[in-house]
Amino acid sequence: xxxxxxxxxxxxxxxxxxxxxxxxxxxxxxxxxxxxxxxxxxxxxxxxxxxxxxxxxxxxxxxxxxxxxxxxxxxxxxxxxxxxxxxxxxxxxxxxxxxxxxxxxxxxxxxxxxxxxxxxxxxxxxxxxxxxxxxxxxxxxxxxxxxxxxxxxxxxxxxxxxxxxxxxxxxxxxxxxxxxxxxxxxxxxxxxxxxxxxxxxxxxxxxxxxxxxxxxxxxxxxxxxxxxxxxxxxxxxxxxxxxxxxxxxxxxxxxxxxxxxxxxxxxxxxxxxxxxxxxxxxxxxxxxxxxxxxxxxxxxxxxxxxxxxxxxxxxxxxxxxxxxxxxxxxxxxxxxxxxxxxxx
Length: 344
Description:
Layout: H1 2-6, E1 11-16, E2 21-24, H2 26-32, H3 36-39, H4 51-63, E3 67-75, E4 81-92, E5 98-106, H5 108-154, H6 158-182, E6 191-193, H7 196-209, E7 214-219, E8 227-229, H8 231-249, E9 253-267, E10 270-282, H9 289-292, H10 310-320, E11 324-330, E12 333-341
């Protein structure tokens, strides 16, 4: 039985009646990034920094009733959180003592893949809808502009020409908006490049636009391998994300640009041997609840002066290069993550 438990992918812990750790299997050590040798005998609070969960485990011993929680977010300290399905069962020993058997099955990967599939499907459907709508608008818009130009030639009163100029300028503005909604209309011109090249270009441009009270920090991993991608499309996608972060922090704040590489990582349904990860992190107020479900939909924005096209365009450009943009947000920390595969 012990050999079976040792080889389970589910984390298994045994706690005594004082909620001290008596046993943890290898899957548990991986989940908590902690060795059994170090933590056996210590209170569970040394592993789990969640007072409500600790209280719930104490109630299991007190009431002798099992406890189950689905998709529970565990705070493991140092900004490390995992999502698990947790079950706690009371144990009664022959000597009269009590204890707990705690099982935890990590759900982060399944939830992430499901969320990524949703983002990709949403992006494809949105692009198809927007392209059709934009094409339908562009045709009469061109006719409207042409008619205004012809009318302007027939007018001899300069004051009346002011109105045709308004029609033409507004038609041009809408034409520009339609072009943005259509997004990139060419296939990526991929080249071998370091992700830090477009990232540094973006940092320099945005830094020149910001006040001195907004700081941009760099946390780069210089060992990251080169990728095959379209330089221009990556610059535009990253520019949109960093400018959004700058707008989120307001008059004063901090933006962090972080790069890492990850092995055997799944983007959507495709597993890649190596993936480059770029995090754009800001310490602004976070994304409001009403914006979360529609974040990558066009024309949806929380700013009066915004067009709501920055994030959809960024997602589209990253998708064209085989990648994906993910995000997570809480007050004081919002992270937009660009994932790009390394193709050998």
